[in-house]
Amino acid sequence: MEKRFNPLAADGRWQQAWDEAQAFRADDHSPKPKCYVLEMFPYPSGRIHMGHVRNYTMGDVLARYKRMTGHEVLHPMGWDAFGMPAENAAMEKKVHPGDWTRANIAAMKAQLKRLGFALDWSRELATCEPDYYGHEQALFLKMLEAGLVYRKESEVNWDPVDMTVLANEQVIDGRGWRSGALVERRKLAQWFLKITDFAEDLLDGLDALPDWPEKVKLMQANWIGRSRGLRFGFKLDQAAAGHDGIDVYSTRPDTIFGASFVAIAADHPLALALAEQDSALAAFAEECRRTGTAAEEIETAEKKGYDTGLNAVHPFDPEWKLPVFVANFVLMGYGTGAVMGVPAHDQRDLDFARKYMLPVPRVVAAEGEADKPIHDEAYTGPGRLVNSHFLDGMSVDEAKAAVIAKAEDGGWGQGTTVFRLRDWGVSRQRYWGTPIPVIHCADCGIVPVPADQLPVVLPEDVSFDVPGNPLDRHPTWRDVSCPTCGAAAKRETDTLDTFADSSWYFVRFASQPEDKPFDKAIAEQWLPVGQYIGGIEHAILHLLYARFWTRALKHLGMLDFAEPFGGLFTQGMVTHETYSASHYDQPEGSEPAKLYWVAPEDVEYIDGKPVERVSGRPITVGRVEKMSKSKKNTVDPTAIIDQYGADAARWFMLSDSPPERDLEWSEAGIEGAWRFVQRVWRLATDREPAAGEDKDLDRKLHKTIAGIAEDIEALSFNKAVAKLYELANALEKAQPSASRTQAIDAMLLLVAPMIPHLAEEAWSARGHEGLIALADWPKVDPALLVDDEVTIAIQVNGKLRDTLTAPKGADKASLEAMALESEKIIAFLEGKAPKKVIVVPDRLVNLVA
RNA sequence: GCGGGCGUGGCGAAACCGGUAGACGCAGACGACUUAAAAUCGUCUUCCCCUGGAGUGCGGGUUCGAGUCCCGCCGCCCGCACCA
């Protein structure tokens, strides 16, 4: 027998054995309980990175464990294969996006295979293939028919570098999420999905997701952003530019008697109308639009306004006139684009009022503070209404209800719920995406592509030598006849946002018939996904869209459930030290000039000091950061597998750091993992004459079995790893016995989900028949989970002074007696009797002196 | 600014309901085996003024007993951001 486990020989052999046995194929018709384990599918960028390895290893351990504990497991893999990078590659390297993407998929699939993941490759899918996106087009048309899709001329976020529209969710600090370019505003006819129809349900549904991280639920709740308030109309004392009133929305209708002005957004219809005759206003509005949306700009931007000269009439007092301003802090995109200004109780309104010398009447006050003037801080705390006529003396909540009731009775306002969430703009002016399956006819308008003409296949003969969408320049694809009237018509050349592709792929994994998107009955056998694992960066976009899409499918009667992912886990990043060197050789201690990043494999240590291998220049070791190409601190998983094998890489991904936290990759860490793999091999192959019982070892084993099961179910892989180290230590110390032989077999079963290749090799070397991947998880004997003896801590005044060994379950009196016999304790008590004795059975005795 | 999370040895971290803080790993020290090295094995490793004392970011509190609960600070990280 080999002295060492040789992964280079063994890994491939077992991967082939699993393939041949179809060990991980999910059976739709199995009578076993179903379990769907899913990791977020990758974008085929070309190579897998350590983040993928970590993500998929976690899912794999769970999937393998579930299989061993009697579940029929669905653990699929596919490719989120549409998107910008393929087009960028096409422009830079003159390759077709499809060729580039498919080559990347092949390369990454080969890499994933080498890690030995227990995946059902028979269900592999790529979103860029017509047999996937064709069904997506069918779903889009069903949503269109059901009124969940609409088209509207709208101002969009235009990314001038990527030459495409971005959803609000894809604009970060006023910049495109991918290109980083400053986003411009443009008017375009766009397709929208009515996610706002489900705003309330998407928010309330979060409460029914106990196995989601609170953090993610909170982020989604904030994003959906529900607020309750009053929408009401101010009349203008005289009509202007065709408007006789202004609708505003307020979450604080209780403060209505504290209003001192009305402010409207620069893009408000009234402001636009007025600006046509007022060049000064037009200039001010233009200035407002220019103000960036970046964080610092908003923070430092002064509240500015333009007095329109108009007056609004207070709804409770026809004599009370409020000046109407156009203000830079009012956003057209939220509420009605107009607000009532209550300076005493809103900080922005207060800043504005101070600048334009408007009154600041207090209408809410804490006990005894009714006369306390407002200075530069608005009062937003609780209290009772003052200076507010019929509201005086009410609490804030009572006053809100009273004002809403009056407004509704008087017919000038309505209590409403407003959401921050906007409809999902899905049109992209790109080639490499799912074609939107509609035809524009001059006579018939928008005509859906008939179902029997789906899929609308992307044409392959396109060129990328000009910026913009090549579909616009493709006459034979674009020009069609209208399916309704037969006249000349044009295809929609926009494609769907790639987030649409990832909004239902988990359903297609569960069921993939040729003639329809999925079979309801089969899909529902697997869904919802039991455990979904991926990065926190998808907390809002992907997860919200997928929740919406699932609700839309339910609305269409295609599914019976609303939440796609029962359990969600967001794993931490893989990080690495960063290394930099200077272009100029300088005396020590001087400022480093012109630094450049150095990759880990180009760093070597000479006399304990890091230097760049090629130049010998000294290296500065920088912060530990997420592995990224820009910082060059990446480690290629394939190189690691070549050197250490898949199991060591997998083991390292699971050790040390809790899975939700960042994991720092290090050479020492992977070396340690390698040593452990070899240790297990030595334990498993070191045959000994086996007889006799070892009760302590039996107990240790059964505690470990129970503990590991618990840890894997909770995804606490680092704790499971620690327990396995303890078991290995115990096995090495133990004398040969039948117990030990059994424990070694059991240990192989316990490590099989984590280091499956070694487990198979050792399992077979020890003469077992069949694949360990398909073996049963060892049974726990509950009798062996309890000890006969326990260690009792003896404290004096809460401080540990001694310990003693007592039989499990010893009564309080005998524990106390034993404690008082301890010589150390006698010394500490200096002969005095304790004032009080606290005994916690099987744990401790605390003597209070 | 708003919301959330986290602070434990040289490092990554354990510690279930308030009950022996530091399991387990990394790094390190010493030793064994070896012609030698690698590999492997063994012992030690929170700190200090070391028969004792201190110690889980800092300061208080509750309790027989606090890493864990409460109050007040400090620091770091993440998300959102003029949302009316």
From TrEMBL:
Gene name per UniProt: leuS
Positions of short motif 'KMSKS' region: 626-630
Annotated Gene3D superfamilies: 2.20.28.290, 3.10.20.590, HUPs, Isoleucyl-tRNA Synthetase, Domain 1
Enzyme class of the recorded protein, top EC level: ligase
Xref: SUPFAM superfamilies: Anticodon-binding domain of a subclass of class I aminoacyl-tRNA synthetases, Nucleotidylyl transferase, ValRS/IleRS/LeuRS editing domain
Protein name per UniProt: Leucine--tRNA ligase
Domain called Methionyl/Leucyl tRNA synthetase: residue spans: 40-171
Family label: Belongs to the class-I aminoacyl-tRNA synthetase family.
Motif ('HIGH' region): 42-52
Subcellular location: Cytoplasm
Catalytic activity: tRNA(Leu) + L-leucine + ATP = L-leucyl-tRNA(Leu) + AMP + diphosphate
Species name: Sphingomonas chungangi
GO biological process, one term: leucyl-tRNA aminoacylation
